[in-house]
Amino acid sequence: MSSASQAVKTVYNDRIQVTEEERATIDALNASIAADRTPEGYGALTEFRKSLAKETREVLLSSISDLEERGRAHRERIMPELERLKGTAWPTHGLVPLEKTDGLGYAYPLGSLVGPGGASYHHLPPQGEVVVAPTQPPNMGELWRVARSGFLYSPKMNYDNTQDPFRIYGHVNYSSDELFNGSVGLGATFTLPPERMENTNRTTFEVNPLAEVDGFVSGWTGYYHPLLAADDKWSKCWETHEATLVLSSGERLTGDSSQTNIFSLEDKIPVGQADAHRVGGWAPTLRFTANMGDLRQRGVSIILQMALRYDFQLEGESDIWFRNRYGSDSESPAAFDNALTYNCSPGVVRSIP
Fold first, then answer.
1. Cα separations (Å) of 72 from 59, 63, 319?
2. Residue 42, φ and ψ in degrees, nearest 5
3. pLDDT digits (tens, 9 = 90+) for 78-106
4. Where are the beta strands (DSSP E) in 67-165?
């Protein structure tokens, strides 16, 4: 939902050789994860709604002479106690925690059955079937990380991708009538070069990457009343997971994404607060068609990019936090050691019948 494009900062793994073709494709993928996501017409609808609310407020002021004075008095009475509760634990919502299955692996709420190491259990050969595999290269099908990236469009927000797990942390306190669109995102890019590709005549392949998030995203909106304090107070946040498979020559193989509106605080009476516990895994099944022999001959790699993005909106008196535990600013200041974390496991590219 961000209203501006952000420059992506990318750091390449100096222990793995990356070709110029691979680098150009990775840079194009990184630019796409930071692109403007605002739906067409969204800004116009927002401005129309705001102008209507302003006109309503002006009519009320002309009809009730002491409306502003009564609103200030009411605010002064209730805000000290409400400010004490700001950032503390109110009812939470978020992803379903990981749950054990029948011993084969873990069941993730937004993906398929995968083992702790990312291996798929979907396509075991039937009992009694003898499978003769051709000689395979070392580390067959393994995707190795070649780059880490991140972008930021917001003051007082931070990310760190210099070590695992990646982190997002910060607290934005906003107090303007202008709608603010912010965003922050992280990406990890992995490659499967020709020398690690499976020797097979099969042309259908599958990979089960896993993205894991752990932390709290919290929102707050200040004092609001439709008569006494009718100026807009918004705090909204969207979480987006993305997984994209492309060839180093630029062709897209497949991809998947999942977007969640994790909270939407809009003109809540008397104040609004949300503590969304983001915990669990997203494990998409990426299936595609390719001729590995042809790719090896042409020297073309397979590239997987995993990305996590948060877009948020603030208006009026509003706040948003990214951290690992909720609480007031004195109890739980957002920092490197109190951050939302992001881990990526790329899985293994394997052929399927």
1. 18, 17, 21
2. -65, -45
3. 667 666 666 665 544 333 333 333 332 23
4. 92-94, 99-100, 106-107, 144-153, 157-160
What is the β-pairing status of strands 340-345 and 166-192?
A: antiparallel
φ/ψ bin of 196: left (φ > 0), alpha (ψ from -120 to 50), beta (otherwise): alpha
CB 172 within 8 A of CB 319: yes
Cα–Cα distances in Å, from 58 out to 49, 55, 62, 139, 227?
A: 15, 5, 6, 69, 11
Within the chain, residue ranges assigned H as helices are 20-33, 42-63, 67-85, 292-298
Tokens of 260: 């969640």
* 326-346 burial code (b ≥16 CB/10 A, e <16): bbeeeebebeeebbbbbbbbb
Half-sphere exposure of 162 (CA within 13 A, CB side): 4
Distance of CA 240 to the CA centre of its chain: 4
Report whether 279 contacts 214 (CB < 8 A). Answer: yes
- Secondary structure (3-state) at 56: helix
In this structure, are residues 233 and 248 in contact, taking their beta carbons and an 8 Å threshold?
Answer: no
Q: Which amino acid is at 141?
A: G
Q: Return the amino acid letter for 277.
A: H
Q: How far apart are CA 200 and CA 135, in angstroms?
A: 9
Burial of 313 (0-12, 13-18, 19+ CB in 10 A): buried
Read off the pLDDT of residues 301-338 as tens digits, 9 standing for 90 and up.
Answer: 999 999 999 999 999 999 999 999 988 878 899 999 99
Please, are residues 266 and 309 in contact by the beta-carbon 8 Å criterion?
no
DSSP label at 252? E
Say if strands 210-221 and 302-323 run parallel, antiparallel, or are unpaired.
Answer: antiparallel
**Is residue 161 within 8 Å of 11, Cβ to Cβ?**
yes
Distances (CA, A) of 261 to 8, 97, 195, 207, 308: 24, 18, 41, 27, 14
